[in-house]
Design the sequence.
């Protein structure tokens, strides 16, 4: 029903406007008595075999929602009812910012892909904290970044600010230095700036009564040499793991007419490369840290490939947009069938 009726109707309109429309619709729908229970009965699979313990956290199933969808933690409870085992909110910055100039979100239907140059548009970390205070049972990841106007030599301060503000309200953190849509942000993936940033956050983490897992989200465009550096940095800093991967700046093999739009590309064109990065990190590190696999998961088989390549968990974004919430259930059913 989603792919045959709902998606064609939604895809007639501007992607960003439709995103907010569906947010408002789902929020209002879930206020109807019994609506949340209906969604849970329709899309959730409750099975002990799906549970995962990763970096000290217990996940009810290994399929999560990637950052960028619920940027301001406005809909995490409703989205969790669709069957996600965890929801990652953000990317959030210390101060509110409008993001890049519109139009900044583009569908590439011939490629089952999306290009975005949103630019970390969000309402700021204080607003996110206010919303997360009402959370009781959704496992939440907090994806943090720097404000656009913060120079790179002050970037650590931005990450520390959001880390401290969110600490009591998220279950794990994700350090986003890999978005292509904030000027010079990817320079923070270089070895020395990245070690400084992660070591600083780890020191703050160690001062807490109970530390929280910190993960690093990396770009798919890194070379093998850079990926080896990532492995070394993860092991040296002692962070909990890696999310592989963010969007790509590559445009290889695209068919859609708006393929040349600037921004990060997500969706099916990223499927193979994201899996390659996961396998490389897993094999070269000797499976020494957990990996959350994300990028081009449009089918249950795509998710299984990520898990077999070395991912402990997977996340959806563009596949969720194109395939609908049934994809979450299909993946969990396939995991059970495969005995993964």
Sequence:
């Amino acid at each position: 029903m989603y792919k045959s009726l709902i998606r064609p109707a939604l895809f007639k309109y501007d992607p960003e406007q439709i995103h907010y429309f569906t947010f408002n619709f789902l929020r209002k729908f879930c206020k109807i008595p019994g609506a949340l229970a209906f969604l849970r009965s329709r899309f959730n699979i409750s099975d002990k075999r799906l549970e995962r313990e990763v970096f000290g956290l217990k996940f009810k199933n290994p399929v999560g929602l990637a950052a960028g969808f619920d940027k301001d933690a406005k809909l995490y409870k409703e989205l969790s009812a669709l069957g996600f085992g965890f929801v990652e909110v953000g990317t959030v910055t210390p101060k509110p910012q409008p993001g890049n100039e519109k139009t900044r979100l583009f569908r590439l239907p011939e490629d089952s892909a999306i290009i975005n140059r949103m630019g970390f548009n969000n309402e700021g970390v204080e607003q996110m904290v206010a919303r997360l205070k009402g959370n009781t049972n959704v496992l939440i990841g907090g994806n943090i970044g720097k404000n656009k106007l913060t120079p790179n030599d002050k970037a650590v301060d931005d990450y520390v600010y959001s880390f401290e503000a969110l600490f009591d309200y998220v279950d794990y953190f994700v350090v986003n230095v890999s978005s292509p849509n904030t000027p010079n942000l990817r320079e923070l993936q270089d070895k020395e700036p990245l070690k400084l940033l992660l070591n600083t956050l780890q020191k703050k983490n160690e001062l807490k009564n109970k530390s929280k897992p910190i993960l690093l989200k990396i770009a798919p465009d890194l070379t093998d040499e850079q990926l080896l550096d990532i492995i070394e940095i993860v092991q040296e800093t002692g962070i909990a793991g890696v999310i592989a991967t963010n969007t790509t700046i590559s445009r290889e093999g695209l068919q859609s007419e708006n393929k040349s739009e600037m921004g990060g590309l997500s969706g099916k064109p990223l499927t193979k490369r994201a899996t390659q990065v996961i396998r490389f990190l897993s094999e070269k590190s000797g499976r020494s840290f957990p990996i959350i696999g994300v990028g081009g998961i449009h089918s249950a088989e795509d998710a299984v490939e990520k898990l077999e390549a070395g991912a402990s968990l997977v996340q959806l974004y563009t596949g969720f947009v194109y395939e609908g919430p049934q994809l979450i259930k299909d993946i969990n059913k396939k995991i059970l069938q495969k005995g993964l």
